[in-house]
Structure formats: C-alpha cells, structure tokens
C-alpha cells in the first residue's frame, strides 16, 4: 500500500490572486472602459497588440461570443506562431523574433490611426522587447492617443530590461501622457504552484494568461456598461451555437468591416510623428 499521503490540489486557490487583482483595480478598469467607449462611439477602434502566448487575449476580445465590435487585433505571425514547438516555427525562433526591434514601426505603417483610437499592448511579463518596442513606437507617433499596457506589475518593475531603451512596458506607459497600466496579477516568475514531490520540486500553473483574459473580459463588461450608460446601442456577438443568430452575426460583421476599413484607410487619420 502506498503510504504517501495524496497532495492537496491547490491551483484553484491561486485564482483568488487574479480575482483580488481585478477588484483592486476597479477604478483603473473603469477609466480604460471609458476610453474604449470613446473610440467605439467615434466609429474607431481599439488596437490590441500581443506576442507569444498573450495572443489568446487578443482573440478573446476581437472575435468571440460576447465580443463588442471595434476591437482590432494586431497579431504578427512570426511573433505569435510557435505551436510547432520545434523546427522552423518553433519556440526558439519565435523568441528570437521577439528580441528584434523595429518590427513595430513596420506594423504601425499599415494602419491609419484616428484621433480617439486606443492602443492596448498585452504581454505577460512586461519585459518582452517586441511589446516594449510597440508601446514606444505608438507613443512616439501618437502621443495624444491613449495607450494601455496589460502585464505583470511586479515583474515589469523588478526584472532587468531587455529593450535597448532600458525600459520595460510599465516605464513606457508611465511616461505616456495618456498611458494607463493594468496589472495582470501574475506573480513574479508567473508559476503559481510549487509541488514538493518525491522525485523533484516542480513549479507549475502559470497565471499570466488567465490574468490577461480576466482583464480583457472585465473591460468587455465595463465597456458595454459604459456605452449603455451613454444610451449608445452597440453590436455584441450573440452565442451562435444555441439559436439562430444570423441576423446578429451579419450585423456584427458588417460593423467590423466598416471599422476595419477605416483602420486601413481613414480620411481623418492623424499624421504620425516618426522623428
């Protein structure tokens, strides 16, 4: 008979960290939701950039049941595709691209930014050079537009910088005239559970993705509440699996097309400050 007592299953308890992190930032989240509402009511978009695993937060907010129109994901394949794990699309290749500075300028050249558009940059640690580079480049080009950073506050503050600017995401956001930083509640190092086993000590269960998803969905709720408070009826994608929602689906896509078209060609675009 195995005399070793079965270990306690502890990961669900770690979710309290995310819950507490969200509730403690209620005022900040509501402030961001107002900026999102401003962009939506102006016919514009909220650009949501991420690299690495953080891409799932972009998918969650831009094309998902319950999604509002007006969120435009910025997902660059080389920065987000590593599911092959090894080989030409493996993780080491992806991490190499993440360290390359300058891609963000090429990406932003593809968009016409409007006066009320918002940029949200999502990264687990707040230290990834590609994400920091995007925040720096957007803030340089459009200093009067809001920029939101979603990352680990503790790791952004305590970790050594990797970008040539000697800044992490939190530093860039704090320097921006309209910058707002949201903590994803990730602990330093991300891994939330330590298993002291017989064969070794194992650290598992990262919280960063769950934290970021919780942030973007909290903003989703707060934004539609803010729009409704302003008496503005908006397109929200209904659950297409439980009833016939073709009418809603088509209207939702049509509004997205209008907004995405404006993102590509906006007669009232701002002139970027590139120098």
Automatic annotation (TrEMBL):
NCBIfam families membership: PRK02947.1
Domain of life: Bacteria
Organism this protein belongs to: Flavivirga eckloniae
Protein name (record): SIS domain-containing protein
Family matches, as Pfam families: SIS_2 (PF13580)
Range of residues in the leader sequence: none
MF terms (GO), sorted A to Z: carbohydrate derivative binding
InterPro entries, A to Z: SIS_dom (IPR001347), SIS_dom_sf (IPR046348)
GO biological process, one term: carbohydrate derivative metabolic process
Domain SIS intervals: 36-232
Taxon lineage: Bacteria, Pseudomonadati, Bacteroidota, Flavobacteriia, Flavobacteriales
